[in-house]
Amino acid sequence: MDAIVLAGGYATRLWPITRNRPKMLLPVGDETIIDGILSDLEADDRVSDVYISTNEYFADEFRSHIEDSDFEKPQLSIEDTADEDSKFGVVGALAQLIEREGIDDDMLVVAGDNLMGFDIGEFASFFEEAGTPCIAAYDVGSKERATSYGVVELDGTQVIGFQEKPDNPKSTLCSIACYAFPSETLPLFDDYLAEDNNPDEPGWLMQWLAERDAVNAFTFDSYWYDVGEADAYIEAVQWALENESIVADSASVTNSKLGDNVHVMADATVTNAILEDCVVFPGATVEDAAVEWSLIDRESIVSDVDLQGALVGEHSKVR
């Protein structure tokens, strides 16, 4: 089977932190968000090719990341877009990728901004046994959260109902942007789009498929982080650091208190500061400040100020 890692978005909800970097390459502990997914796919002998589906704007960032890694399978498949307004939508981009790369094997699709509490190999085995299109599903625990996702109803493992971002969800079990498609179903992408259906949210495609044939769901209950906004990213960092802190060897921390879940990256300087639940990116400076639940981007300066819930863009000065 082939695998597609979706990484074509511009992450505008995380700007300015993601204005000039893809959110999939944001650090979570000792690796980036996308690395866990690539590791699972690299280790699975059933997966032959791994395509990172991205846009022209971030292509060089992903290319450098792959070249600097030990991964052998990933290759870029670049959409012909360079900004948010020219996006094809996820389903549209997948249909184009299938044609562009000549994919005719079974296909796994996973969003590159997912941190998931299962090995993708487990999902692939479930898919092979089911022999149908499959989704992964997670109970988000509240109907308020469920309104942001595709909500599924199951009979055993078979999907019998699907609501995409409903105002009044029938359950809290949600699709998490991890899908699998038998090779014989790939032409249905074109059929779906030809009927002028929603080209963006894959949940609408899965609802369309479930109305025509069997779709099964792989459920899990460990953890899942959908890194779409700053709060979700910091929660993912909390999970990765487990209330510890990381300070890069080349960073300088003096006369400062580092609380839980603080990541101070290479060449950053922290002086006379109190930090908690935050990431200080490479080359940034924090001095005479208290910073909590915030992201301080590279080469920025935060001095003599208290910040909470802040996103400080690169090369900024906050005094």
What report would you give on this structure?
The structure is a single chain. By secondary structure, the protein is of the alpha/beta class. It contains eight helices and 23 strands. The strands form four sheets. Strands 14, 15, 16, 17, 18, 19, 20, 21, 22 and 23 form a ten-stranded parallel sheet that branches. Strands 1, 4, 5, 6, 8, 9, 10, 11 and 12 form a nine-stranded mixed sheet that branches. It has a two-stranded antiparallel ribbon with strand order 2-3. A hairpin with a 2-residue loop joins strand 2 (27-28) and strand 3 (31-32).
Give me the secondary-structure topology.
Layout: E1 2-7, E2 27-28, E3 31-32, H1 35-43, E4 50-54, H2 59-67, E5 74-78, H3 90-101, E6 107-111, E7 114-116, H4 120-130, E8 134-139, H5 143-146, E9 150-155, E10 158-164, E11 173-181, H6 188-194, H7 202-210, E12 216-220, E13 224-226, H8 230-241, E14 245-247, E15 252-254, E16 257-258, E17 262-264, E18 269-280, E19 285-296, E20 301-303, E21 306-308, E22 311-312, E23 317-318
Parallel strand pairs: 1-4, 1-6, 4-5, 8-12, 14-17, 15-18, 16-18, 17-18, 18-19, 19-20, 19-21, 19-22, 20-23
Antiparallel strand pairs: 2-3, 6-11, 7-13, 8-11, 9-10, 9-11
